[in-house]
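[09:14] KT: can someone run the structure on this one? pasting the chain below
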Amino acid sequence: MTKCNGVLDPPSRKWISVLPPLSVLLVRPGIYIVLAVHVSGVGCSTSVMGPVTRRPVLVRAAAAAPTKKADQAAKRARQNEKRRMYHKSKKSEISTRMKKVFVALDGLKKRTDLSEDDIKPIESLIAEAFSIIDKAAKVGTLHANKAGHQKSRLSRAKRTLLIQNGLYTPSA
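[09:31] RB: done, structure tokens below
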């Protein structure tokens, strides 16, 4: 049996119910026409009980609630915060690796008898720092020019130590 005993009032968004033999049609917001309703096992048919100058507008009894899209500004804020934290961690890792290299180089500056074997651990630290700097530049965390500048600082510090201890002589 089909239910035909009510109508949804759009302005107030309230359900107006009428007893089973009658139903209500919306002509204009706030103006309704009472109709006789004949309910059968298959469906509903209506007939107007009074004179109407206009053709009545049929209203669906059950309307699906519109789905709301996610707020784009909130989504952008979430994405930006996630990216900011990722980039911040990468920059922190770069500065930590660079500091390790500079601290190790400062420890070797105090020594007077340096050999090639003493430089090997420094070279591995520099290689790790270079790898992290290059990955950050590739992803976009660092600008390519800044990555080059940081790599140059590390290389220059190592080269200065080698020149001071006589392990490297620049050509020209």
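[09:33] KT: thanks! Residues 163 and 171 are 12 Å apart (CA to CA).
[09:34] RB: yep, looked fine to me
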